[in-house]
Amino acid sequence: MCYDVSFTVELKLLSDYFPDLIQDDQLTINFDATIHIVGHAYPEHPVIYQNREDGRLHLKLMEWGCIPFYVKDESKFIRQRASMLNARSERILDDKTSYWHKIRERRCLIPVTGIYEHREIKGWKNKVPYFIKYKQEPLFFLPGLYSVAELPDPETGELIKRFTYTIVTRPANPVMRAIHNGGDNAGRMPLFLPFELAKEWLSELTEERYRELLQFEMPNEQLSYWPVFTIRGTKPHPENKRKNEPYDWPKLPELTLT
Q1: Closest Cα partner for 131 from 242, 233, 258?
Q2: What span, in angstroms and rounded, lies between the C-alpha atoms of 52 and 49?
Q3: Which of 67, 134, 161, 219 gives 149 a disulfide partner, CB atoms 3.0 to 4.6 angstroms apart?
Q4: What pLDDT sits at residue 27?
Q5: Which helix (H) or strand (E) holds 179?
Q6: Extents of the domains making up the chain
Q7: 37 and 131 Cβ atoms separated by less than 8 Å
Q8: How far out from the chain centre does Cα 228 lie?
Q9: What is the pLDDT of residues 143-200, one digit of tens each?
Q10: Which residues fall within 8 angstroms of residue 97, CB to CB, at 6 or more apart?
Q11: How far apart are CA 203 and CA 19, in angstroms?
Q12: Is residue 194 within 8 Å of 17, Cβ to Cβ?
């Protein structure tokens, strides 16, 4: 699945992709923090969505990890929320009991410069993290779904709208299958779409076209990827490099694509 992403470009670059984008919030990016964003912290992230009132594309801070619209007591949903960081593409249209089916028309795009995934090596104690990015662009846009829940402010009790999102995942292509090869969700990857298809994700879709986008498999050659140093631990990088920079792991086996 996808629980670790990176976002290391200026927000103004988004207007090169979406010239008429309306910014809902005053946003600033702390690049020291956003070079590695961990989903299980439920962080806020700038997300592009189509506003239902004016029909235009807006940029808004949303929390990663969907809170369903029917939740009224957040404290009772805390344990379940970790399962809402990602949405399996197969469930969005075909599982009518799924929350993802209920919010299938609330589509959004999550701008990132790359993602991290961990590779299991036979005989190694720890997995090796990799940084993966779209080769053609300085950033790309992960398709997602967003949810809006009205929850009481813990201090005032006033109901406030909480915007939250999930990242859509699909079966992995050969490169991602070789990297994400262990754990309960082995063989999964985020749904990567080229920019023209990502824009289409935000438009009105027939069910047939929706399904085609969900089934799009990014070709291996469109991705750049390399091993990096430990991203979740507190151990400092031995070469004092950034988390997304290549790291030469001794005796690391070559990736075998199948």
Answers
A1: 242
A2: 9
A3: 67
A4: 79
A5: helix 174-179
A6: 4-227
A7: no
A8: 19
A9: 999 999 999 887 787 899 999 999 999 999 999 999 999 998 999 999 999 999 999 9
A10: none
A11: 16
A12: no
Topology given in CATH for the domain delimited by 4-227: hypothetical protein yedk fold (3.90.1680)
In the block, tokens 């920019």 appear at 195
pLDDT tens digit sequence for 224-256:
999 999 998 888 888 899 999 999 999 999 999
Within 18-169, residue ranges assigned H as helices are 31-34, 78-81, 89-94, 99-102
Look at residue 236 in the predicted model and tell me its pLDDT: 83
Look at phi and psi of residue 123 and say left if phi exceeds 0, alpha if psi is from -120 to 50, else beta. Answer: left
Reported pTM = 0.96
- Please determine, for residue 98, whether its predicted confidence score (pLDDT) is greater than 90: yes
234 to each of 31, 84, 238, how far by Cα in Å?
Answer: 18, 26, 12
Q: Which two tokens stand for residue 92?
A: 């969005």
CA distances from 57 to 109, 215, 250 (A): 10, 24, 46
The answer to whether residues 202 and 57 touch, using CB atoms and an 8 Å cutoff, is: yes
pLDDT at 161: 94
Across the chain, what does the average pLDDT equal?
94
Measured between alpha carbons, how far apart are the two ends of the chain, in Å?
Answer: 19
